[in-house]
């Protein structure tokens, strides 16, 4: 038993695991406990593959290090833990050891933070571009659309055969539909009114609205951390954020499926390039078919929708409202599970009037 090894590992800032010759976890340092949100007593003695979820890639790295008797580095590792709601994006170095009781040393480094900061920068740029697009649409579409509708009405009055009026009605109805879309796009945003609120009141309001629309075919489950403190925000905006996400999920599942609301506290979170000691994590999880691959990079763009009758504004507005709260909105999607995560900082945000 190496007496000097374990105390030195305890003081490392990086997460470290030691495996025995049966690939069972024989030691983890405090940094690993923090990274995987688990105490050492809950992992010690467990086989590596049972201790984590989505561990196939890690297991391949372990086998490679053992077979070659040399260090193996996995630069792009997605790893889940039973105590975590999302997978971790990590790099991992697996090093064989020749010490009594220990066969392998696994050292993990998180690479989420720089990627997350880059995504947030992209979100800010995208939100500004979306607003510019909406302003341009006001000038390019509004006036011609009114002219098209007026011309169709005049043409209808001149038609002698009633059957032909069916075609002018199509033009008028489509013009009205586009005008309604333009009103949604171009309506000036109201100035947010920030006040103390309970995030669970927001979720419960959305739950009641959606279940009133689909009372029998949709199940909305709650997984709340009831100890969460109040945050400062615009209640109506946050209701609209969650409602837009949930309605998209319900429509993707054709009204049949399970949606889960999950709330948790997150620590040391960087949002909008600012480090926050605490933030509230709100997750909306559904068991639907998932977001199509070709839409994932542009799902927050206006006028992008996976439905023929969709206007593609719900997530654009959700992103804009979350941005006004200095938060972030992200998603993970695969067939059978889509998870939108809204992060809201717990700070004394200035009230805006």
Polypeptide structure, described:
- This protein is of the alpha+beta class and about 350 residues long.
- The chain has 3 domains: about 5-110, 2-Layer Sandwich (Beta-Lactamase), CATH 3.30.450; about 120-185; about 195-345, 2-Layer Sandwich (Heat Shock Protein 90).
- It contains 9 helices and 13 strands.
- It has helices at about 5-10, 30-35, 50, 55-70, 110-160, 165-185, 200-215, 235-250, 315-325; strands spanning about 15-20, 25-30, 50-55, 70-80, 90-100, 100-110, 195, 220-225, 230-235, 255-270, 275-285, 330-335, 335-345.
- The strands form 3 sheets. Strands 2-1-6-5-4-3 form a 6-stranded antiparallel sheet. It has a 5-stranded mixed sheet with strand order 8-10-11-13-12.
- The protein is elongated, with a radius of gyration of 26 Å.
Please outline the helices and strands.
Elements: H1 5-10, E1 15-19, E2 25-28, H2 30-36, H3 48-51, E3 52-53, H4 56-68, E4 72-81, E5 88-99, E6 102-110, H5 112-158, H6 165-186, E7 195-197, H7 199-213, E8 218-223, E9 231-233, H8 235-252, E10 257-271, E11 274-286, H9 314-324, E12 328-334, E13 337-345
Parallel strand pairs: 8-10
Antiparallel strand pairs: 1-2, 1-6, 3-4, 4-5, 5-6, 7-9, 10-11, 11-13, 12-13
How much is the radius of gyration in Å?
26 Å
Number of strands: 13
Oligomer: single chain
**Uncertain spans, ≥5 residues at pLDDT below 50?**
349-353
Question: In the residues, how many domains can be counted?
Answer: 3
**Annotated CATH topology of the largest domain:** Heat Shock Protein 90
Give the N-to-C terminal Cα separation: 65 Å
Sheet with most strands: 6 strands, antiparallel
Mean pLDDT: 82
- Summed up, the helix count is 9
The coarse silhouette is elongated
Please provide the ordered H/E string of secondary-structure elements. HEEHHEHEEEHHEHEEHEEHEE
**Portion in beta strands:** 25-35%
The CATH C-level class name of the largest domain: Alpha Beta
CATH architecture of the largest domain: 2-Layer Sandwich
């Amino acid at each position: 038993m190496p007496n000097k090894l374990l105390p030195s590992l305890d003081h490392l800032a990086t997460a470290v695991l030691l495996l025995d010759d049966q690939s069972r976890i024989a030691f983890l340092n405090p940094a690993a406990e923090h990274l995987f949100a688990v105490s050492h007593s809950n992992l010690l003695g467990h086989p590596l593959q049972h201790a984590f979820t989505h561990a196939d890639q890690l297991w391949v790295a372990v086998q490679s290090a053992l077979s070659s008797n040399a260090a193996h580095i996995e630069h792009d590792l997605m790893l889940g833990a039973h105590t975590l709601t999302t997978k971790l994006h990590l790099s991992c170095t697996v090093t064989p050891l020749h010490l009594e009781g220990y066969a392998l040393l696994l050292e993990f480094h998180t690479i989420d933070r720089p990627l997350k900061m880059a995504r947030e920068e992209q979100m800010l740029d995208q939100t500004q571009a979306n607003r510019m697009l909406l302003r341009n649409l006001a000038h390019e579409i509004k006036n011609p659309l009114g002219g098209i509708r007026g011309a169709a009405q005049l043409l209808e009055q001149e038609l002698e055969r009633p059957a032909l009026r069916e075609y002018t009605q199509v033009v008028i109805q489509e013009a009205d539909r586009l005008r309604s879309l333009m009103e949604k796009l171009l309506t000036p945003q109201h100035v947010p009114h920030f006040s103390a609120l309970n995030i669970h009141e927001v979720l419960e309001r959305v739950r009641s609205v959606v279940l009133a629309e689909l009372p029998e075919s949709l199940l909305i489950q709650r997984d709340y951390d009831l100890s969460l403190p109040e945050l400062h925000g615009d209640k109506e905006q946050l209701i609209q954020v969650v409602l837009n996400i949930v309605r998209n999920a319900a429509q993707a599942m054709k009204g049949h499926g399970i949606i889960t609301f999950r709330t948790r506290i997150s620590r040391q979170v960087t949002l909008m390039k600012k480090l926050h000691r605490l933030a509230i994590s709100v997750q909306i999880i559904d068991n639907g078919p998932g977001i199509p691959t070709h839409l994932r990079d542009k799902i927050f763009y206006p006028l992008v929708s996976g439905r023929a009758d969709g206007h593609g504004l719900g997530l654009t507005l959700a992103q804009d409202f979350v941005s006004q709260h200095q938060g972030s909105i992200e998603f993970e999607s695969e067939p059978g599970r889509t998870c939108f995560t809204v992060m809201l900082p717990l700070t004394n945000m200035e009230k805006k009037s």
